């Protein structure tokens, strides 16, 4: 299947990151990017070749580095449900979305 094929061709830096952080979930953001939610490592954003684009984790504003669920919309926004890594100040919101030009910051 597509997910297994993608994971088998990840570059070594992405594989090393996943060796240290359990893979919990994944979602295609758009035709060029995929997001991987991890246990203890936040969210990895990768391109189609598996190159690491960005890591969104506690140091970048998540309340937790464990992300059990991810979703994306047709506009290419990435989101996750409350309590799955939400910054504390945003937990009342139904979802948190980010785009490739937006970065989370701790408040």
Folded structure, characterized:
This protein is of the alpha+beta class. The chain has two helices and seven strands. The chain has helices at 2-8, 12-20; strands at 22-28, 33-39, 43-47, 52-56, 71-72, 78-80, 96-98. The strands form two sheets. The protein has a four-stranded antiparallel beta sheet with strand order 1-2-3-4, with helices on one face. Strands 5-6-7 form a three-stranded antiparallel beta sheet, with no helix packed on it. A hairpin with a 3-residue loop joins strand 2 (33-39) and strand 3. The radius of gyration is 13 Å and the shape is globular. Mean pLDDT is 75; it is low at 84-97 and 99-107.
Largest sheet: 4 strands, antiparallel
Instruction: Give the total of beta strands.
Output: 7
Alpha-carbon Rg, integer:
13 Å
| Portion in beta strands | 25-35%
Shape: globular
Given helix and strand content, the structural type is alpha+beta
Mean pLDDT reading: 75
Helix content: 10-25%
**Strand order in the sheet with the most strands:** 1-2-3-4
Q: What are the segments in which pLDDT stays under 50 over at least 5 consecutive residues?
A: 84-97, 99-107
Distance between the termini: 40 Å
Counted by DSSP, the helix tally is 2
Order of helices and strands: HHEEEEEEE
Question: How would you briefly describe this protein structure?
Answer:
The protein has 107 residues and is of the alpha+beta class. It is 15% helix and 30% strand.
List the helices and strands and how they pair.
Elements: H1 2-8, H2 12-20, E1 22-28, E2 33-39, E3 43-47, E4 52-56, E5 71-72, E6 78-80, E7 96-98
Antiparallel strand pairs: 1-2, 2-3, 3-4, 5-6, 6-7
């Amino acid at each position: 299947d597509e997910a297994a094929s993608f994971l088998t061709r990840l570059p070594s830096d992405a594989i090393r990151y996943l060796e240290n952080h359990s893979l919990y979930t994944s979602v295609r953001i758009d035709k060029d990017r995929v997001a991987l939610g991890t246990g203890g490592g936040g969210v990895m954003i990768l391109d189609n070749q598996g190159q690491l684009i960005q890591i969104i984790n506690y140091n970048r504003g998540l309340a937790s580095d464990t992300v059990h669920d991810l979703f994306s919309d047709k506009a290419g926004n990435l989101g996750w449900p409350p309590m799955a890594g939400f910054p504390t100040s945003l937990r009342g919101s139904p979802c948190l979305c980010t785009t490739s030009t937006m970065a989370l910051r701790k408040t």
